[in-house]
Structure formats: structure tokens, C-alpha cells
Design brief:
By secondary structure, the chain is an alpha+beta fold. It contains three helices and four strands; from the N terminus they run E-H-E-E-H-E-H.
Length: 141
Amino acid sequence: MSSTITRQYEAVILVHPDASVEEQKAVFKKNNEIIKSYKGRVNHVDTWGKRTFGNPIEKAFKGFYFHTTFEADSQAVAELERVMRINEKVLRFQHTRLKENTDLKKYVESFKEALAANAAKEREREAKFQAKKAARQAERM
């Protein structure tokens, strides 16, 4: 008898930068079908847009980032990973099991707040860097 315990997961998926919007949607449509076939459900899917990688992945320097949370059993996660390994448009993925009884809505909200805080810090860091750069150029003149 197989385990039918549903657990909460989050996933981060990196899609190839050349993937069309239709190909990106196809990845998540297939993932949604797999999760539903194992009697799970998708909570949310967010796109973070095209971002630069820290290190190239398969000669790609940028890619589309996606974050999703869902409820499913471990067999669904195994099938999701199998399908994503086959898909040439998926560069990387990571599934993480969340703690028991996690309120997914609150989890996603706090996750988005942390992302926004990190983005603000990065913008502030970049502004300081640009100000220093401009100051150095002004000194040279």
C-alpha cells in the first residue's frame, strides 16, 4: 500500500532564458496535472522574472525564476522531479518539504516580504556603488 500522506512543499524552478511564455506555461501546466493526479493541490506560483545566475548553467547566464508552493504526497514530488529532469527547458529545480502545519498563505507572504527586503538592500548597495563611482570620476576631471 502506498503512502497517501499529503505534505506541504515549496519549489524553485529555473527555466531556460530562451523558453517562450507558452513553454514556461507548459512546464507549470504539466506540474499542476501531476500534482492533481496524486490528489494534491497547488497553492501558488510566482514568477520572479529573468535574472542573472551567479554561475552559468549549461552555458546560460540568465534564466526565468519561479517559486511555487503546493500540497502533495512524496510520490508526486518524485514524479515532478522525473518529468523536470527530462524537460530541456528546465535548467534547475529544488523541492523543499515545509514544516508540518505550515500556513501556506502566511509562509508565502513572509517569503515575499523577505524577497522585497533583499531587493531593497541590493538597490541601496548598487546606489552607493554608483555614487562612489561617480565621485571617483568627478575627482579625475
